[in-house]
Amino acid sequence: MATELPIKEGETAWDSVMRELDRSLNEFSEHLIFEDFVACEKHFVLLINNRIFVSPNYENLGKRKPSDHLIMIYSILQRRQISSAVYVFDSGARGNGYDNCDNGHRLPMFLISKKFGFNMPGLLFPNPFFGNVTNWDIERSLYDEYSDRNAFKKRKARALWRGSIECFKNCAKDMGIWQRWGALVQSWKHPDLLDAKATPKHNEALSIRNVSHIDCEPSGLVVYPDMVAAYKELQKFPSAFQDSHLDHHKYVEYQFLLNLAGSKGGGYSRNLNHIWSLGSVVVLWDAHFTEWYFPALHDGETHITGDYNNVIDTLKSVRRDPVMVEKLRTNARQIFETFISGEGLSNYVAAAFKKLREKFHNVTKVLDDHLELNEHLKQLGCGSKFHLLEVSIFDSHKGAVLNQHIITSDDPDIPACAVQDDTAKEKLLETLRTGQQDIKSLSVKSWSLYLNGEKYDMIKMIKMLKHTPAAAKNGDTTHRRRYLSQELTESSGPACIVAPSSNEKKRKEKQIPDHQKMKDRLKKKEENKEINMKMNKQEEKEKIILNIMKIKGKNKIKEKFDFN
After folding, report:
1. From the CB of residue 336, how many other CB atoms can be counted at a distance below 10 Å?
2. Which end of the chain has the smaller Cβ count within 10 Å, N or C?
3. For 497, left (φ over 0), alpha (ψ -120 to 50), or beta?
4. Under a CB-based contact definition with an 8 Å cutoff, are residues 350 and 80 in contact?
5. What is the residue-wise DSSP string for 456-523?
6. CA distance linking residue 475 with residue 479, whole number of Å
7. Phi, psi dihedral angles at 228 (to 5 degrees)
8. Any bridge partners for residue 281, and if so which?
9. What CA–CA distance (Å, rounded) separates 486 from 173?
10. pTM, entire model
11. Between 64-79 and 422-447, two packed helices, what is the crossing angle to 10 degrees?
């Protein structure tokens, strides 16, 4: 892997990750002060006595990543007491957000990925797609059940990948797409070893840059002869490269799980959050991006690495070595337990905040003194020149709505930030009311848990654990799928070709008017609803509850492990 760090003798995986965090921190001046962080209004987060405060201008809470980051932090604060801290966070996937806080002082911004490796400035931090970490553990326990039901020897001896591909006008954004297209080509050539297919994104059909007239060499996109042949095949038989979305419970049917760089620019991919715990061998497509736990990864120990030129030979070699396969599976699970489980995420976040406090002693001194903190906030004009809001979660399960609260004069921690002017208070309340609807809509659409089309309340199910029967039949628990409409969109530019979906020909033959399509869809939806109502809902709920119960008997997660 291009971003792999050298192993130090006697160092555990946790030690390696902490060493990289220390190295990144050492690049910043220890003389930074509290005002330096607060000046970065759109990115700073203040933690006081396990409470979260942000500016009303904090990133864009109408988007998923900024809101999910705060939900993740809030859920961790419910699990453990963390000393007061102030930090800056950027939700961008490429790691170049450190420039967003250039106010004369370089700030140690938390980044969810560094596209070009560890040497980029900033501190690596877990990406926000875990949401509430307690519910993340419950969710993973469901997939543990699926993994246990699918013995490794009975799984398909192929590497699986599903993801979107879309063509961009800017070649610099095509790096991730190019890697994905390379995987599709190798899957087309070697279907017995690799099952990589694209799923249309945002209702778009599969689109690939015209490899026969490539004009992106300066961006590092290399054209291989096989890619040209596959490109011609794509135009004739697009179904050979496309497939429908697969939920993660289907991933356990494969012995190898492939991760490819993100679709935009070749950064991280959220897919990697899920595949370490599924009992399969993790295959990483060689790339330069990094995430917070990558110092613990080592090719041949925790995963295997491949690229366009060698991934097939690598899969062949590993399939012939059962001892190596077992080692890879075991160590992949340890990576999950140590860094990606709810406890692992909490451990890293707590350690990162602790190191911030130790490094920036001037800031820590202010945070730990109630009077001094409020005096600094008062001098900065908190409550008049700028405002702070407290953030909490309305509900306690993943996908809960973020609530934002105006600071009042009787606030126990930061009364200096109370909004004094009635006009300003009303304006702020109106802003919150508008923004709250956006956050609520986003969260409900993104994180509802469904079983056979029915929405389930995770909290109610957890409360029912005391009255769970001893056994239940196998069930099929899935997350809500994002059903794709059958409408095609135009190509994103003359350099890109849009391959029609496999059923486009049938749609053209039928020539069904748009209003009739809508009526048919509504009718079908009603029919499905009636079918679902006839199912034994209580039995299906009990199946989920049994799966959730598995988490209650798990041992505490280890913070450290050694591959040696």
Report:
1. 21
2. C
3. beta
4. yes
5. E-HHHHHHGGGG--S--------PPP-PPPS-----SSTTEEEPPPTTHHHHHHHT--HHHHHHHHHH
6. 13
7. -65, -45
8. 256
9. 26
10. 0.77
11. 90
pLDDT along the chain (564 residues), means of 10: 66 94 94 93 94 88 82 93 94 70 78 89 93 89 89 96 79 76 91 90 64 65 81 80 84 95 74 94 92 95 94 97 97 96 97 97 97 96 90 61 84 92 71 53 36 40 36 29 24 45 47 60 67 56 54 41 39
Separation CA 215–CA 167 (nearest Å): 13
Q: With CA atoms as reference, report the closest residue to 544 among 445, 447, 464.
A: 464
**Hey, what are 18's tokens?**
């902490």
Give the helix/strand (H/E) hosting 284.
Answer: strand 281-285
Three-state secondary structure call for residue 121 = coil
Number of residues assigned to the chain: 564
Report DSSP state, residue 400.
P
Tokens of 87: 């930090």
- Cβ atoms within 10 Å, residue 153: 8
Q: Contact, 181 vs 285, CB < 8 A?
A: no
Tokens of 78: 């419910």
User: Tokens 């399939």 appear where?
Assistant: 319
